[in-house]
Every structure is written in C-alpha cells, then in structure tokens.
Request: fold
Amino acid sequence: MREIIINDDYLRDSDVDFSVTRAKAIIVNKDNKIILAHNNGTFQFPGGHVEDGEDKKECLIREVREEVGIENFNVEDAFLKIVTYDSHYFNTGSVVLNTIYYFKVTTDDEPDEAKTNYDLVEASTPFKLFFVDADKLDSFLDSEIENFDKPIYREMKIASKEFNEFYKKEDNN
Reply:
C-alpha cells in the first residue's frame, strides 16, 4: 500500500486537535465504469468515517451498502493511504489529522436507492450516484473542477492516479 502525506501548513503532530479515519471505495462494475457520488456540493468516492470498534474494511463494507445500496461486491485490500494535516477542517478552526484508506471494490450489482441509508449530512442535500468510464475518470475530474471541494478534488486525483498505476501494474503481471 502506498502512503502519501499532505501537510501544506507544515503542521506537527503536537498541533493536531483530533484525528479522523475514513475508508473510500473506487467501485468498478462489469462495464469498467466507476461509481461516483455527488453530495453536499461536491463529487466524491463512496465511503465514510470508521466508527468505534470497526476496522477499515468493515467500515468500507458498511458505507458501500449505506451509500450505494449494493449487497454483492468484492473488496480488495487497501491500495492507498492518504494522510492530510488539515488546519482548516470544515471551517471548524480545529487542526485535524485526516487519514483516508482507498480500496478497490468490484461488483456486477447496480446501485439500489431503496437499499441506501444516508446519514443526516448526506440526507441534507441531494445524494446522487452516477457512472464514469474508468478510462475517463481523470478527464471527468478535471472537467468538473468547479464542482469540487478543492481538497477532495486533490485527494480524488491522487487516488485515481494511484489506482491506475497500481492496477495497471497488477494487470501486466
């Protein structure tokens, strides 16, 4: 697993008020399309916060079911860990150490909105799922840059690049 650290403000561990751990899914279907979500004014890969007593993979499985509504899918081990020191965490004034694990998820199932279970934040604005050709993910992200929260855009670009490099390398073996 590759680890990337983002620390634009040169923060130290002693500056951190609290830590957040998330798990995100790059979900690829049988047609080589990736499922993205649009919610709260930005695009994102499905996923969310690791809850108490939960490991990263359990979190990812729960989040995929809650946000995408699919039951049958395969989760591979995490291929990427992005650690961000964030001095402007959602405008709270808190300094946060944000760790996101990215997993490849494959499925033949279609998203099923009737099986989703959005949390209060997700339900407060429209939560839309849609497909992007895996080969066109980077160009899609670039074309929609104005519709992104900038840190999320940067993380998604990194995740997309690492995903492509990791799985192309794997496919060539």
About this structure: The radius of gyration is 16 Å. Helices lie at 56-68, 120-123, 137-143, 150-171.
